[in-house]
Amino acid sequence: MEKRKLQWGILGYAGIAKRSVIPGIQGSEWNEVAAVASRSLDKAKAAAESHGIAKAYGSYEELLADDSIDAVYIPLPNHLHKEWTIRAAEAGKHILCEKPIALNASEAEEMKDACEKAGVQLLEAFMYRCHPRYDMIRNVIQSGEIGQLRGIRGAFTFNNAKDMSNVRYRKDWGGGSIYDVGCYPINAARLLLGKEPEAVTVQAIFSAEHDDVDMMASGLLEFEGGVSLTFDCGMWAAFRNPLEVLGTDGIIEVPSAFITGQPGSANFFVQANGARREVEVPHVNAYTEQADQMYRAVTGEAKLPYGADDAILNMKVIDACLRSARERARVQL
C-alpha cells in the first residue's frame, strides 16, 4: 500500500480502548483512528467527540462496511472475539484483537484460518511485549549474567470484586482471572523461555457470587529441563504485577512487569556478582509501539513478531490451566 497513515476503526468503546489504545494509536506517526463504533450511536458520537475522531457509527457492521478503514481494534468481551474477528477479516480489515484472543485454542484456530483466507494481519493485543524492555531483559538472560535459568515467578492481581455487573464476572462471556490477567505471566514465560510448557497445575477460587468464575488462581507451568513458571492472578486481591527471573548466579526483578505508564516505570533490576543495578528503559508508549507493529506488517516493512500461531499456543496453555483448576489435576500438554 502507499505510504500513508493506517486508518483504524474501533469496534466498541471499552475502558481499555478509551484509556489506552485509542490514545496510543493517536500518538503514532503512521496510524490514525478514523472511526469508532458502538451499539449506541450516541455513545459512539460522544467517544468520537472526546477523542477527536472523524466518524461515529451506531453498529459494528456499519464500520466494517467503510472501505476507508484499513484495520480494526476489537476490545469486546472475550466471547465476541471470534465472531467479530472473522467478520472483520471477511470485510478485508486487519485486526488487533484484545487478549485473550478467544475462549479456547479451537476458536483461535478458526480466527487464524479466516484471516489467512482473507489475507489480513491478526495480532493479539499483548501490548507489554511491544515495549523494548522485554528485548532488553532477554539480552540480559542471553548474556549469561544471571547464569543458567532456574525459574520464573510472575503475578498480576487487582481487586474489582464489588463491581458485580462487570463482564469479567460472566462465565459464558469468558470471565475469570486466568483469562483476564493470568494470561500475562503465562505469555511472558513463553516469551522469555522461547518454548512451550509440558504440563500445568492450577488451583483456583471459584466464586458463586461472581457466576462461578475463577477470582484467584495460583499455578505451576512445567517446562523442559526442570524450569518452571510459578504464577498467581486474581481479581479479588491487592494490586501488583511483578515478574522475577531466577538464574544460578543472579536475579532479574521487574517491579511492574505488564504496565508501563509513567517515566521510569518500565525500569528493571539485575542482581548479580554481589551487586544490584537498575536498568533504565526508554520511556515509550507500548500501545503506540503495538500500532506501529501492525503498520509495518500491513505495509510489508516487517512481519509481526508474534502472529496468530503464537496466540493459538497461548490459548492451549490457558485451556489447560482452566481444565486443571476445574478438575484439580495436573494437565499435560
UniProtKB/TrEMBL annotation:
InterPro entries (UniProt xref): Gfo/Idh/MocA-like_OxRdtase_N, Gfo/Idh/MocA_domain, GFO_IDH_MocA-like_dom, NAD(P)-bd_dom_sf
Domain Gfo/Idh/MocA-like oxidoreductase N-terminal positions: 7-124
Keywords linked to the UniProt accession: Oxidoreductase
Signal peptide: none
GO molecular function, one term: oxidoreductase activity
Start and end residues of each GFO/IDH/MocA-like oxidoreductase domain: 136-253
Transmembrane segments: none
Family, similarity comment: Belongs to the Gfo/Idh/MocA family.
Name of protein: Gfo/Idh/MocA family oxidoreductase
